[in-house]
Amino acid sequence: MLVLGIESSCDETAAAIVADGAQILSSVVASQVPIHAKFGGVVPELASREHLRKIEPVVHEACHRARVGIRDVDGVAVTEGPGLVGSLLVGLVYGKALARALEIPLAGVNHLEGHIHAVLLENKVDRRAGRPVDEAQLPAVTLVVSGGHTSLFLVEEGRRQDNPHPVVFNYRRLGQTRDDAAGEAFDKVAKLLALGYPGGPAIDQLAPWGDAEAVDFGRIKMRGNPLDFSFSGLKTAVLYRVRGTALAVEAEERRAWRQARVNCPAEELRAHCSQATLGLIASFRNAVVRDLIERTLAAAEAAQVDSIWVSGGVACNSLLRARFAEASRSRGFRILVPAPVLCTDNAAMIAAAGYYKLVAGQVADATLTAHASFPLGV
Ligand code: KG4
Ligand code: ZN
After folding, report:
1. From ligand 1's centre to the CA of 340, what distance in Å?
2. Among 186, 350, 374, which is best to mutate for testing ligand 1, by the most ligand atoms less than 8 A from CB?
């Protein structure tokens, strides 16, 4: 079964062709980073216009790379939320119209469910039964950590009474951020320090040159649910360390120097960072990663599961990946983190999640619409 996935929830226009929910035949992502970089964040109206410009060529390219014609596609899966409504609508209207014209079924996919399915995509799914096998074992605790979200879910396999196949996934929300998402905190700290946009990759590349013990941010304390997250205090702590100090002067000099450079190699940027700035960057990355890891491991222990899945843009972070690998060795968890290209926004993950919905008959009707806020699970 060939599913065309369409993703346009934020600043990437993406389309992919995935066979049987498991095999990526093509995955095309048109990034808008150069458009938004000069504003230091996504400008919603510019994003919508760019999606409109890119959606047709991106879908065309996905079919071309997969060597399939649009009439070979058996179903369409499109992100319905959460995200920027103006951006989501572009993909939704395109997907709806295409499904209607081709007379094939359409599935609406929650973006977070898409991120979770990126893990399954990479870790072998039995194509005949549509059943997760090998590495990806359920139940699992999953951390979705991106620019818009930081959430922990328990993923379980549900069964439908009428038909034991195919798999239906149930999601239980264990915790979520009460303020900034982790990626948002990375982006805001990078903006403060004039390291460019998006900030996560810049901080990740610069951090190894700094002393991660330079600043002791302490652990983030949570009242109530210990599996919730909060990164705004940490972000403010960085702001207080910078404001009115030599670090602020240095950041402004860097901002002026960076202005004409959209793509600035980390080596060059490092030459414009003092050891004090690099220490702050390394300590900040360390504090975020430590918090993400400790709460995820605590969630897995509380839920008594062996499997942990991690996905979303921040899952590209090299320290996070290394620390999860370490935890896997020392604590015996089976921890799966997809390749970076599947962690950031893409449409293959949407096609994979949509496949299970289409097979299970969870087909969207003509009323399918965009949702800015769209909680996953219960
Ligand atoms: O999943 P994604 O592409 O989009 C959302 O759904 O938000 O994630 C983008 C986020 C951005 O905040 C970006 O700074 C962050 O992922 N990110 C990283 C790294 N690569 C991307 N954060 C930390 N370290 C990285 N290496
Ligand atoms: Zn995302």
Report:
1. 10
2. 186
Q: Does the beta carbon of 187 lie inside 6 Å of ligand 1?
A: yes
- CATH code, 112: 3.30.420.40
What pLDDT score does 138 carry? 85
Residues 299 and 197 in one domain: yes
Same domain, 368 and 304: no
What is the atom index within ligand 1 of the atom nearest the CA of 340?
20
Task: Determine how many CB atoms are found less than 10 A away from the CB of residue 285.
Answer: 24
Consecutive 10-residue runs of the chain (378 residues): their mean pLDDT? 97 96 94 89 95 98 98 98 98 98 98 95 58 68 97 86 68 97 97 94 97 97 97 97 98 91 86 98 98 98 96 98 97 94 97 94 94 94
Domain residue limits at 231? 182-336
Ligand nearest to the CA of 311: 1
What HEC string does 42-96 produce? Answer: CCHHHHHHHHHHHHHHHHHHHHHHHCCCHHHCCEEEEEEECCCHHHHHHHHHHHH
- From ligand 2's centre to the CA of 248, what distance in Å? 31
Ligand 1 atom closest to Cα of residue 11: 4
Same domain, 191 and 303: yes
Q: Examine residue 12 and state whether it is found in any structural domain, yes or no.
A: yes
The total domain count for the chain is 2
